[in-house]
Amino acid sequence: MKPFAFTWRTSLLAAAGIQLLTATMALATDVTVWCWDPNFNGASMNEAISRYSAGHPDVKIKVVDFAKADLEQKLQTQLASGQTEGLPDIVLIEDYGAKKYLLSFPGAFVPMTGLIDYSKFAPYKVELATVDGKTYSLPFDSGVTGLFYRTDLLEQAGYKAADLQDITWDQLIDIGKKVAEKTGKPMFGIDQNDAGAVRIMMQSAGSWYFKDDGKANIKDNPVFKASLATWVKMLQTKELYKPVSGWGDYTGAFNKGDVAAVFTGVWMTGTIKANGMSGKWAVAPIPKLAGVDGATHYSNLGGSSWYVLSSSKSKDAALDFLKTEWAGDVDMYQKILVGQGAFSSYLPARDGEAYSAKDDYFGGQGVWASFSDWQAKIPGVNYGVYTNEADAAVAAQLPGLVAGGSIDDAITAIDAQLEQQMQ
Amino acid sequence: MSNAESRRGNLAGWAFIAPAMVLLGLFMVYPIFWSLWMSFQTGKGLNFKFGGLANIIRLTKDPVFQHALSNTMIFLVVQVPVMIVMALLFAVALNNPALKGRAILRTAIFLPCVTSLVAYSVLFKSMFAVDGVVNHTLMALHVISAPIGWMVEPFWAKVLIILAITWRWTGYNMVFYLAALQNIDPSMYEAARIDGVPAWARFTRITIPMLRPVILFTTVLSTIGTLQLFDEVNTITASAGNGGMPADSTLTLSLYIYNLLFKFVPNYGYAATVSWLIVLIVAVLSWIQFQVAKER
Fold first, then answer.
1. CATH number of the domain at B56-295, out of 1.20.120.450, 3.40.50.740, 3.40.50.300, 1.10.3720.10?
2. Residue B267, C-beta contacts closer than 8 angstroms, at least 6 positions apart
3. In angstroms, rounded to a whole number, what is the distance separating the alpha carbons of residues A98 and A82?
4. Under an 8 A CB cutoff, do B63 and A106 touch?
5. Which residues in chain B touch residue A389, judged by CB atoms under 8 angstroms apart?
6. Beta-sheet pairing, A137-141 with A304-308
7. Predicted TM-score (pTM) of this structure
8. Is A2-143+302-351 in CATH node 3.40.190.10?
9. pLDDT tens digits, one per residue of A64-116
10. Chain A residues within 8 Å of chain B (Cβ atoms)
């Protein structure tokens, strides 16, 4: 029995050792944060952490970066399994998915009503994270959209900033053709499996996949039809874009200078500024859908908020950190705005000086004031619960449409598929 | 042996297998019955309630499910026979003692199935990219005049997945045949040769009948494997975190189950129903395969 006794004692010692270790570690509170873009929300979070740490040396906050899809699936898998070990204390969730998590996993997130003064945040951000009168998020960024373009390439094709103001998507396609002809570079990098563009167009005219009551809004929705038709037309214009696959490829296309422009959320600013082409970029409002009532040049793509998980062992520290920095530090918001393009939904931050500053990267353009302006004009919509399902239904029809299929048939199919997925 | 003695023997036997039985019951039997019960529940995530046959009715109306089912069946019907035949031919060829470098070839053909799934998927993804090495090679050889959109066009995406799983699993099946070939008495071939039976007839009349149990085994195994196809379609033909691209042309049943649970608004009940349908299909197909093997 000697070996047995030996192992027994060793494991006892080991157990004691582990306990001792955890006891020492418990002196410092550890907070882990999950987010997905090291150039953007990761960098913004790190800025907040360094500010908070100065006054709270006992709280150790650490950022873990994932690809966004990986983060979402890991979070959902763990919440579904009830296995909370390994979950972070704070997690970033994209606004489209907020209701899905809140309704599917009741009790998984800590409500912050009463702790945070929500009147200081953009109302739509608060609304989308509110279930049964309780709000669960600390609203982070807004994804007000813009058309980022290379001034040098557009100039070669004979276009100036004024030529990109107040245009329609069809006019943009013509500009893209000319750019390809003159510079040899396509206008955009496009991932055919990404339905983001359809979402941008829909919201720019005040519509969405769902009505206010949550029901599908696909059939007999002129805005959806116009958005889908416009996007298909762009995809059919092969010289307009370089086909890309996945996020790295997508951002690589403009970061390496392969394409002349990108229309996306303001949060892309950090990535654009990371490619060292200062003075060569500018921003215009996105084009508008032609022939649609209520069409505007203003829309939203993405945007996300911070949530604290109920399973967290450092809930108090996490909440205090969010409250102190993300709901109180106007100065920090100025810094992450200029550095990362983190366009906050914290209203007091708007009065800061950074919001009126000119940006040399964008040729001295007052980009933040513009975005601020555009944001106020974004039509409000209800994102609902089933955005992923609707995206999948749209993506399933795109190749057929690009090959020349009928839009009406595709809309019927999308509607039928979505109908089945929404139960 | 007296009655009491045999009972004690029985008891000891049960005692020995009890731990394994308990674990098996806890981690295998219980979840299986739980999932059967789950397949009658409906609702979002952890908010579910008994829904009767609602999920089964939903199956009959769900276009995505039908699409996934037909994709899976296409993979099954095309890929399994091709792979089994190739594995058989490789095995017979590599069983020939006159062939030089047999060991190296065997290893080379077997090696794909021990590589990491994700590593090989990433390699395939880069090799078959529009400007990847495969298109470049084919264009240099003038086999094609324009690059093939392997991961962009629905048809080619299916071809790519079939290529990938065939590459990975042919060697695995070949090893079963190689082992079985060692059990065929060489005197049978000798006798056939003396009687003047040509090589092809020796293959179809001796080798294949002698291998029948192994062929059945590998066919059933490959069928199950293909019905559960997930990794490749969630890595090779994935984009922006969505597997089964383009346009769900490589969406399989397993991937659909995964989407229902972990990507869409989680619906445990419906996902369990789809899982049980796979069980049913496997059972029916295996039964048919056993019947066919018996008839011959």
1. 1.10.3720.10
2. A423, B42, B43, B44, B45, B260, B261
3. 19
4. no
5. 264-265
6. antiparallel
7. 0.79
8. yes
9. 988 888 888 889 888 888 888 889 999 999 988 888 889 888 889 999 998 88
10. 67-70, 72-73, 76-77, 79-80, 100, 103-106, 191-194, 243, 245-247, 250, 385-386, 388-389, 392, 395-400, 413, 416-417, 420-421, 423
